[in-house]
Amino acid sequence: METKASGKDIIVAVLDNMRQSGEPLLYRTLVPSYFDVYLHRSDYERLSGIFSMIRDECVKALDQELAALNRKGLTVLSGLASKPPYVNAEKNWSVKFHIDEDNELAPGEILIDSRLVLPAAIEYGVGTRTQRSETLRSDGETGKFSKSQELKEEKQAVLARLSYKDSEGNVCGYEMTAPEISVGRGGRNEFCDLELDGPADISRRHFYLRQDPQTGEFFIQDVSRFGTSVGGTKLPPKEWVRLPSKTTLVLADAVTMEFEQL
Questions:
Q1: HEC states along the chain?
Q2: 189-208 confidence digits (pLDDT tens)
């Protein structure tokens, strides 16, 4: 009999990952806000039409599970004021679905990659920021979570704005506050400042965007497999190119993104 992953299996795996991926602080325990669900291609294609429903039920179940954990009223240290022991690291939950392009999963297997918050900007020239990860297995389900060593910094001035439509046609916006960011689909071991919900033609790390601190001008570097166009002109690979203050970016002829310098 062929093994299949069901929508219920995905929701249960996300909840299990959330419970096991908490990061204890003194007065509370932070739980992950961002969940990337990886599926075998056959499961992804079979369930793709109801991902929005599965996502909605995941969010509802996460809210209920967080409330249930808080009702237990655990206290971290005796003598300290009682605080809600479990808190979502962000205001909202994010659940995204991906095909296992590395062919590590068999039909029916589910891999969950979760993070507390969106990663901070990459420090170019000094290596990738350190991550801690662990793989968990229970009842035949596989869950992988990564815990960032950093939380978001205090709100900074917005340097530029990016907007695009996701795979469901929803308009998504991103405000660039760091002088350098990476953009792509992201995924295991490929964390991007702006993770796009798009087709597989979008590379896990598609392009870099930076602002020159002296002139204030913006530059883009394409590092993708299927290319990036700016204002209708395809970028040369792995070369920094100056951006107009307002323009249209097209990624792999699949996703259109609007860029505006502020």
A1: CCCCCCHHHHHHHHHHHHHHCCEECCCCEEECCEEEEEECHHHHHHHHHHHHHHHHHHHHHHHHHHHHHHHCCCCCCCCCCCCCCEEECCCCCEEEEEECCCCCCCCCCEEEEEECCCCCCCCCCCCCCCEEEEEEEECCEEEEEEEECCCCCCCCCCCEEEEEECCCCCEEEEEECCCEEEEECCCCCCCCCEECCCCCCCCCCCEEEEECCCCCCEEEEECCCCCEEECCEECCECCEEECCCEEEEEECCCEEEEEEEC
A2: 667 888 888 788 888 889 99
